[in-house]
Specification:
- By secondary structure, this protein is mainly α.
- Helix content is about 75%, strand content about 0%.
- It has eight helices and no strands.
């Protein structure tokens, strides 16, 4: 139980606006691509909150792998779309909105499972992944490959880890309240980013 309660503190401690681990520079080496990929979903707090929520949703649905795999596979596709020149309008609004929607559903105690949920995870993953693609514009293929490997691996580790911890606690008759608490923190993060995004859109 203590391990699961650490999650809100980790969320609060992450830098909210640091989305580019290399200071905005595109990675030019395999090592830099890997480090950037590993860091990007963690220091981008809106992305991190959504990955944690996917892990909680998977635990509630008793399916620890399906949701995270659908989301992560779609993030890879979304990054590829960005690199191919595709434009996703209002991407930041969709990203922050996805955090809020999933967080509210979990806080309400609803299960997020089935083909419709997986489709929603995949759709959100495409948009999150498209945003990830900005960090490697101008990179060569090998750093891009390392970046994809890094952010795919770290997202899976976070989501699957959260799902496993939450699932074990719930199987033991505890953990549901803690899971909702973490989901509430993530939802708050989503609302903060959503308000910031809307303000930016209105004020330009």
């Amino acid at each position: 139980m203590t391990r699961f309660l650490i999650l809100p503190a980790l969320l609060a401690a992450s830098p909210a606006l640091a989305h580019h681990p290399l200071g905005g520079e595109a990675p030019q080496t395999v090592f830099h691509g890997l480090i950037s990929g590993l860091a990007h979903p963690v220091i981008g707090l809106d992305h991190f909150a959504f990955v944690v929520l996917i892990g909680i949703a998977a635990a509630f649905a008793k399916r620890s792998m399906a949701g995270p795999i659908a989301f992560i596979g779609a993030t890879l596709a979304g990054t590829a779309l960005h690199l191919a020149g595709a434009v996703v309008p209002l991407a930041e609004l969709v990203i922050t909105g996805s955090v809020v929607v999933l967080g509210v559903v979990i806080v309400m105690g609803r299960q997020v499972a089935g083909p419709l949920a997986l489709g929603g995870f995949a759709l959100a993953g495409i948009v999150h992944g498209w945003a990830y693609g900005e960090a490697v514009i101008g990179s060569t293929p090998m750093p891009i490959f390392a970046y994809l490997l890094g952010f795919g691996a770290i997202q899976f580790a976070i989501a699957a880890g959260v799902a496993q911890v939450a699932g074990r606690l719930m199987d033991a008759g505890a953990g549901q309240a803690q899971a909702r608490l973490v989901a509430a923190v993530c939802t708050g993060i989503g609302f903060a980013f959503l308000f910031e995004t809307v303000e930016h859109l209105i004020l330009g």
